[in-house]
Amino acid sequence: MDNHVQSFAVANLRRRPVVVETGGFVIGVDPTSTSPYLNYATPLPGSRPTAEDVAALIGAFCERGLKPRLEFAPDAAPEVEPALRAAGFTTEASHTYLVCTPDTFAPPVSAVPVETPATDEEYAAVDAALCEAYDHAFPASPEGAARLRRIQERGGAVRFVRAPDGGCAAAATCSAPAEGTAEAAGVGTRPAFRGRGHAGAVTAGVTGALFERGAASVWLEYGGEGSRRVYERLGFRPRGTRLYLALED
């Protein structure tokens, strides 16, 4: 599955507004932001970078004023991690990823209504809710709301649970499929609404939407044992590891 997920990562970054390819790496650039979580690289499966390749990769980030950072499945390109560490890259995080298929998918029997945003106000509310859910690590902005709309309009999925005040209580997104799979991400519930089954409802919403569009699998990463249990109840199963490396100042 590592090669499958890594091939997806490459294809997904190639959808970015600006794409740079150098020495067996693909860099996806979002011109509206300098966030390292939106601007990062991934290697081609089986890549065997030289020191010169890594230096060119670092240079491509630096000339754009961006932090050199990568996300990838290390088992799909075993020679990449040693080459990056030799250049000074360090571990930012390492996560197990979980995979769901139509055969394992078990959507909850729930009365929680899940909706698809349609208006600018709804996309802005989803963006603001995810900002709050992630403790403002990703500031809400018009650009963020526009990115969410693009996900929905370009073959992915955005789903949310409406709060009593008409805003957003919880939301999730899923990329458009590539290489037969899709990534569910940005699953978040505002603190005041946690413990009500919202995370499972929106995750099931985006997962089911991608299966309806023909994806053979949906994968995601989890942030703690609580969220892992939520995803496993929906039919997600552990399949591999994703590594995040960055070159600090």
From TrEMBL:
GO molecular function: acyltransferase activity
Record SUPFAM superfamilies: Acyl-CoA N-acyltransferases (Nat)
Keyword Glycoprotein attached: no
The UniProt record lists the keyword Acyltransferase: yes
Enzyme class: transferase
Ranges for domain N-acetyltransferase: 113-249
Alphabetized UniProt keyword annotations: Acyltransferase, Transferase
Pfam families, sorted: Acetyltransf_1 (PF00583)
EC number(s) per entry: 2.3.1.-
Protein name: GNAT family N-acetyltransferase
Phylogenetic placement of the source organism: Bacteria, Bacillati, Actinomycetota, Actinomycetes, Kitasatosporales
